[in-house]
Amino acid sequence: MEQNYAPKLSIVRVENLRLRAFIGFIDWETEKLQDVIISYSFKYDTALASQTDDVQYAVDYKKITKEIIDFVDHKSFHLIEALAEKIYTHIEASSAALQEIKVKVEKPNALRFADNVMVEIDGKDRYNTAIVALGSNINAEQNFNSSLDHLQKLGFLMQRTAFIKTKPLKFEEQPEFLNGAVLMNTQKSLPELKMHLKQIEAILGRVRTDNKNAPREIDLDVLTYNGFLIDEDIAELPFLIDFVQQLAPEIALGNAAFNK
Fold first, then answer.
1. 81, 51 contact by CB (below 8 A)
2. Any bridge partners for residue 104, and if so which?
3. Residue 14 bridge partners (DSSP)
């Protein structure tokens, strides 16, 4: 991330997608398809997409919508709560860049005397799961403790690895590093989390130079976010792979694509 990076957020909204599905506990001999109305929205950083006018930098909402149609239309669901959750999870899994996802599922005329029944999910009420790596070779233990204090203010620290000493790999004329990682639940979006980490680094005295591998007070990087691999250094630093496998063994590292 660039040091002075600031996201330019835009909202994408798809409203009133009208489908037909079986809802409830079904008697297949008498049950009929019912109307289901689906709306969703999300925010993402459109700076690069708007600057280049290139579709490869935009979130493909047409693809998301088509996939929702495929797994909802003429399918069976007991609860619209479950259907809303499936849609939310599907949208969230499409890109780590999406923020403030909202999903609304409506079931018109589901109750007598009521026009509508609906379930709404707002991503601002949900927690995101991230693995954050820590590294230091200047007053390492003190800076680790200070970093953990700051990270607690960004969410809940659920688990951490052992903190280990590693030899410098790219610029060898410097002291050994203390390295570790924490698994945290946070309501911060990925861009917000990255900016907060840079702020913590600055508060703890890190000064960036042309030598990216120079000694440092603290280095804080997002390794994974909601199951997506974020930090490409994972491929070059074996201990980072170990950290992810310890904290989130369900994430496949072998052929995974990086998502920023």
1. no
2. 39, 120
3. 40
Pair 183, 131: CB distance under 8 Å: yes
H/E segment holding residue 65: helix 61-72
Would 252 be classed as within a structural domain?
no
What is the 8-class DSSP label of residue 258? B
Check whether residue 155 and residue 235 sit in a common domain: yes
> Beta strands of 174-256 (E only): which ranges?
177-186, 219-225, 228-229
Strands (E), the chain: 9-23, 34-45, 76-77, 99-108, 116-122, 128-136, 156-160, 164-166, 177-186, 219-225, 228-229
Q: Could you give the 3-state DSSP secondary structure of residue 115?
A: coil
Residues 153 and 209 in one domain: yes
CA 234 – CA 124 distance, rounded (Å): 29
pLDDT at 255: 43
Residues annotated as part of the active site: 107
pLDDT for res 25: 67
- pTM for this entry: 0.86
Domain that holds residue 47: 9-125
Contact 92/42 with Cβ under 8 angstroms?
no
Domain boundary among 102, 125, 148: 125
pLDDT tens, residue by residue, 180-189: 999 999 999 9
